[in-house]
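Chain A, query sequence.
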Amino acid sequence: MSSSVKTLKTPKTLPARPARNSEKPAARRRALPLAAVTALAAFAPLVWGTTYLVTTDFLPAGHPLFAGLARALPAGLVALALGRALPKGVWLFRAATLGLLNIGFFFPLLFISAEHLPGGVAATLGAAQPLVVVFLAVAVLKERLLFWRLAWAVTGAAGVGFVVLGRSAGMDVLGVAAGLAGTASMALGIVLTKKWGRPAGVRPIAMVGWQLTAGGLFLLPVTLLVEGFPPVFDARSVGGYLWLGLVGGLLAYALWFWAIGRLPVTRASLLGFLSPLMAATLGVLLKGESFGPLQTLGLVLAFGAMLLGQLGGGRPGGRLPRPAA
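Chain A, predicted structure.
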């Protein structure tokens, strides 16, 4: 009897170890550290900071609507082909709404601002976005208004004010109004993206395709009515449109919307301060723009708020919310 018991115990205990060990690496692969998600998300505002230089130096002037259309629609069709999914049911309305807020309204306002303001100033207007997101998150997502969130958002907004009020800012009322309106539009788009999440089984690239295509289809008739036929192209403008569409549109937005589902919404919006920093740096290095002491202080405040806002207050491990049936 004792020998038979021993032979029965051996096969029960041996197979258990490899099964447990084989599951651990898969779990590690699925969970990205919060710092890695933040670093990938930061790619988007850094690329968007180049928009202002590309707009003024590569694209034909006076065609902000066409610039938005060229950035949105071709990249959206590519993303639809890669994502292989179309919105259904309630997502027809949601995709159209997000496409208008994040693309259809935001893109032309962005290019109008870029044409009427120096790059650093135009980009820094977008740094007011975290302050708008803080209050929208309370109203739409029912989040608590935490002091650390409000403090960094107000600090960044103060930096925006210093840049805009600087004597050498090159102010233009239309450019400032367009920049602030575009900031508010995308802030609401970010909050609704976080609220609605992503449909089950739909990849982030498909969500990007829905929004870029919806925004592009909205801009198509508006562009033809307001601006008429497209401008004459040359190699320089084609390169600018390709950069804005494929890198600044398709790739940057795919990473951005993917990261929003995993980061606290205010933490993600604070990364927007990287955009004015990139635009200002390019303006100084490549265009000879100069910032006075007040504007320099504003950029430092905006960047400091972004950096310190990443060091605490956020809960790691955020995931995309599951959609309702």
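Residues 32 and 317 are 8 Å apart (CA to CA). The chain has one domain: 35-309.
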